[in-house]
């Protein structure tokens, strides 16, 4: 090789031209805002999510505010909960909200038929939930009972939470100790109407929706309601098509979608101690979210090119076998670095589709499925998933910056997945952030990001990783997987370079 060719090669290598992953950041091209509601969570009356998770009761020795554990409130405030969905899930279509108001010792009980058949004493009800949302600074997202409720019940519930005064529902609320209405704007019109919400066809449900939505109004007393139609199960594109076609858009603010990353519903595999093949399959399912969101959005575009109706992914996350020895109806699972990878790639997908995806809810907040916190009596630990949500909170209400990504692959046997995923945004103070994941458990990834539209000279950051993708936080080792400072990013000649270690999530701030 002659001297000139050697110099060219040297320049190419040093400017990242041969990095496996080439990205271009367009820092001057933002158009859409990443809603804080993409960073939503889900709290169902299921297992130990509400009782023992959030709610320990006013008389518990565990420090609490109005019965909700304060360690959890503080952790969630730090993480930033965009919105909180409640009371289900499948439970929502059995819930009688009027049984959960008034003096706690006079509330009737019910059986939680979907989740373990346990007796629900209704001690955590509407006031508890809406006050909790205020304490967290989170928007409430209530799921109405369509499957076994009535139009009047749901209409009354909306009025109870939103009307100022004068009406029977507003007066009942005041009698129960709450003078002012809450800001309860977001309402689900049933849940999984194709399954536990009533086993309906979409053609039938679309009519039911129209009837319920007609009577769900705040009658002009507060901000406009945001009504969400129960959406498709994964790739059921016909469901979305019919909802968008048959429901007038002046009574439809959102269409839901549920997708869980499950290897096989009959053989989910363990939450810890899984094989690489099981890890690969989970990530394959997680990355399917890109196709689901794209194809459901395309259908929505056909009926709503102005993108007024939001795609609301109000249940997502990993679903594995319950921890050995725990109640199968309680869906309690541990949470490893695999879940951190799942969260990292999914949130990048949502950010990059924020023109249509404006609400999403990770299932579920505590002690159920892909939880951000696990409790054991007075003890509480934060999971790897928590740390990803906390690291990514810089994207909330920031301007999405387009990122072109050409990535290397994570290969297992004959199958391949993109190794790297990323998204970028500019916050209200003008700070640019980039979040990156490398899902490959065996190889690090060289990253080169060409910085367009910014004069950044460097970057600071944080990283979440661990020796093995099976690593997790336990009550004995609560900080085994936690974020650390990341010093490996440099900017040279307008190009940001870094190496992502195997199974890592990195957040960078340009400066
Ligand atoms: O999140 C657990 C359950 O999964 C929810 O109750 C239901 O909506 C979904 O099938």
Describe, in plain words, how this protein is organized in 3D.
The protein has ten helices and 27 strands. With 511 residues, the chain is of the alpha/beta class. It has two domains: 15-29 and 402-510, Golgi alpha-mannosidase II (Immunoglobulin-like), CATH 2.60.40.1180; 36-397, TIM Barrel. The strands form seven sheets. The chain has an eight-stranded parallel β-barrel, surrounded by five helices. A six-stranded antiparallel β-sheet has the order 16-20-21-27-23-24, with helices on one face. A five-stranded mixed β-sheet has the order 17-1-22-26-25, with no helix packed on it. Strand 12, helix 9 and strand 13 form a beta-alpha-beta unit. Residues 44, 88-90, 191-192, 315, 363-364, 369 line the site of alpha-L-arabinofuranose (AHR). Alpha-L-arabinofuranose binds at residues 44, 88-90, 191-192, 315, 363-364, 369.
TL;DR?
The protein has ten helices and 27 strands. By secondary structure, it is an alpha/beta fold. The two termini are 38 Å apart.
Catalogue the ligands. alpha-L-arabinofuranose
Name the structural class: alpha/beta
Indicate the overall shape. globular
Instruction: State Rg.
Output: 23 Å
Q: What are the salient characteristics of this protein?
A:
alpha/beta; 10 helices; 511 residues; eight-stranded parallel β-barrel; TIM Barrel; 25% helix; binds alpha-L-arabinofuranose
List the helices and strands and how they pair.
Elements: H1 3-14, E1 21-26, E2 40-42, E3 64-65, E4 68-69, H2 70-79, E5 83-86, E6 110-111, E7 119-120, H3 126-136, E8 139-144, H4 151-162, H5 168-175, E9 186-189, H6 202-214, E10 226-233, H7 237-246, E11 254-261, H8 276-303, E12 310-318, H9 337-352, E13 357-362, E14 373-376, E15 379-382, H10 384-391, E16 399-401, E17 403-406, E18 409-412, E19 415-418, E20 420-426, E21 432-438, E22 445-452, E23 459-464, E24 484-486, E25 490-492, E26 495-500, E27 504-510
Helix pairs in contact: 4-5, 6-7, 7-8, 8-9, 9-10
Bound molecules: alpha-L-arabinofuranose.
């Amino acid at each position: 090789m002659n001297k000139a060719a050697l110099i060219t090669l040297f320049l190419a290598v040093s400017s990242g031209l041969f990095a496996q992953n080439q990205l271009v950041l367009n820092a001057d091209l933002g158009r859409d805002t990443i809603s804080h509601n993409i960073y939503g969570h889900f709290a169902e009356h299921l297992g130990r999510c509400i009782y023992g998770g959030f709610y320990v009761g006013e008389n518990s020795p565990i420090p609490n505010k109005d019965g909700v554990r304060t360690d959890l409130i503080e952790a969630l405030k730090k993480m930033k909960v965009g919105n909180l969905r409640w009371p289900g899930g499948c439970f929502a279509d059995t819930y009688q909200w009027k049984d959960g108001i008034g003096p706690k010792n006079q509330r009737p009980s019910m059986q939680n038929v979907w989740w373990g058949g346990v007796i629900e004493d209704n001690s955590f009800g509407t006031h508890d939930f809406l006050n909790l949302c205020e304490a967290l600074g989170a928007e409430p997202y209530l799921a109405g009972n369509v499957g076994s409720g009535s139009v009047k019940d749901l209409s009354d519930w909306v009025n109870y939470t939103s009307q100022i005064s004068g009406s029977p529902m507003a007066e009942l609320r005041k009698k129960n100790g709450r003078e002012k209405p809450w800001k309860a704007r977001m309402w689900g019109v049933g849940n999984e109407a194709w399954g536990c919400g009533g086993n309906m066809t979409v053609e039938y449900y679309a009519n039911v929706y129209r009837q319920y939505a007609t009577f769900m109004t705040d009658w002009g007393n507060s901000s406009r309601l945001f009504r969400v139609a129960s959406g498709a199960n994964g790739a059921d594109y016909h469901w979305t098509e019919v909802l968008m076609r048959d429901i007038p858009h002046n009574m439809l603010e959102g269409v839901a979608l549920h997708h869980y990353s499950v290897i096989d519903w009959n053989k989910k595999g363990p939450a810890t101690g899984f094989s690489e093949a099981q890890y690969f399959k989970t990530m394959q399912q997680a990355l399917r979210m890109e196709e689901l969101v794209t194809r459901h959005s395309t259908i929505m575009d056909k009926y709503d090119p102005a993108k007024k109706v939001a795609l609301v992914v109000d249940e997502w996350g990993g679903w594995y076998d319950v921890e050995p020895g725990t109640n199968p109806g309680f869906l309690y699972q541990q949470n490893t670095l695999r879940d951190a990878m799942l969260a990292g790639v999914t949130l990048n997908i949502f950010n990059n589709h924020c023109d249509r995806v404006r609400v999403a809810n990770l299932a579920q907040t505590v002690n159920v499925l892909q939880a951000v916190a696990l409790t054991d009596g007075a003890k509480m630990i934060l999971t790897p998933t928590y740390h990803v949500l906390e690291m990514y909170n810089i994207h909330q209400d920031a301007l999405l910056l387009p990122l072109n990504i050409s990535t290397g692959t994570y290969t297992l046997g004959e199958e391949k997945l993109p190794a790297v995923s990323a998204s970028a945004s500019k916050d209200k103070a003008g700070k640019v952030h980039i979040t990156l994941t490398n899902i490959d458990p065996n190889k690090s990834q060289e990253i080169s990001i060409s910085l367009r539209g910014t004069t950044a000279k460097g970057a600071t950051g944080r990283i979440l990783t661990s020796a093995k993708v099976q690593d997790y936080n336990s009550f004995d080792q609560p900080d085994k997987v936690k974020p650390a400072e990341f010093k490996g990013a440099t900017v040279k000649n307008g190009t940001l370079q870094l190496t992502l270690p195997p199974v890592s999530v990195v957040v960078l701030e340009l400066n």
